Structure formats: C-alpha cells, structure tokens
Amino acid sequence: MPQFDFGLPVGAVCQFAFYVNDIQSAMSEYSKQLDVGPWFYMERVAIKNTYRGKPSVFNGSVAVGYAGPMQIELIRQSDTSPSVFMEIDERRRNGLHHQAVAVRDFDARMKAYTDSGFETAMYLENEFRNRIAYVDTKGHLPFFIEVVEVNEIVERVYTTLHRISIDWDGKDPVRRFDSIGDLVATTGK
Fold first, then answer.
1. Cβ-contact 146, 101 below 8 angstroms
2. Is the pLDDT of residue 180 over 90?
3. Can you list the alpha helix ranges (DSSP code H) found in the chain?
4. Cys bridge to 63: 6, 36, 41, 144, which one at CB 3.0-4.6 A?
5. CB count, 10 Å around CB of 69?
6. Which domains, ranges and CATH numbers included, belong to the chain?
7. What pTM value is reported for the model?
8. pLDDT, tens digit, for every residue of 10-53?
C-alpha cells in the first residue's frame, strides 16, 4: 500500500479532530497527558468555505500536533454562526468532531461517499491549493469525515510538522502557525 512521506498510508485516517471549549487548556492537557506536541497554533483564523451549499466563513482558532504519525487537531469556533461545528449538540460539542482521511484522488473518494448516501456538509480550498470536504455520514459514523486532498504542498507541510514532533524535547510547546510562510520561518526549510 502506498504511503505518504509523513508515515501513513494513502487513503487512511491521518487525523483525529476534537472540538474544545478552551483551546489553550486543551493543548496543555493533551501534551501533558498524551505527549502530543508541539502544537502549531492558528489564532483568529477566518476560513472561507461553502457550508450546506451557501457561502460561509469559519471564525475561530485551530491547533495541530502529532502523536506518532497521527495528527491531532483542536478546534474552537469564536462565534455561533452556522457551521459543521455548531451542528453538534452543545452538550456533546466538547469532544471528537471528525476524522480526516488523506487522499490523492479527491474526486474518487468523494464519489464513494456520495454513493454511500453521505453528503458534503462543508467544502473549501485553501492556501495549500488543495480541496477539503467535511462529509456528513448521516449517522452511520458518530462523527464527520474530513477528506483532505494531499498534493505536493500538503505532503511537505504534514511531513515537516510530523518530523518536528519526532525530535520535540518538550520545549516551546505552542508555536504560531498562520501560513506556509510561518512554517518555513519555524523550520528554516
């Protein structure tokens, strides 16, 4: 089975993502209790997307860290605008929100999910020049599936973040990350 440079098979789960009520506290606890880190933190981001067929913007904060080759994402929305994050009942909102799969053939994976009766809840294209979709599993799974199209840029970013985590000594546990430029500045690569 083909593998990405960041250590996971093409088409496999590459991320567990959690919606959290306090992202700073969550980063600290995940590092302390689960050795996840360092965290690459994006504060006050505005991500343009299509939510349930309508233009939308996600406003909030996101952090990613690694446990081995598995990416852990923490998400906190800063408003109550309709989104895939606000769809979850407030009592259940602090916990697993989605699992991401890393794919080369985005269209084929999306067709497979559509053929299974699932629908796209959110879609976006980002500065990495790739496509991302949050798939509503219609209750077949207790979470959304995020489909991440892995192109050359995404593979390089994920690989760099993963390698940084392998050599992490526990120092500098939270690092700002708002763009590809920030990653280059952080890693010197």
1. yes
2. no
3. 23-34, 106-115, 152-166, 180-187
4. 41
5. 17
6. 13-184 (3.10.180.10)
7. 0.92
8. 999 999 999 999 999 999 999 999 999 999 999 999 999 999 99
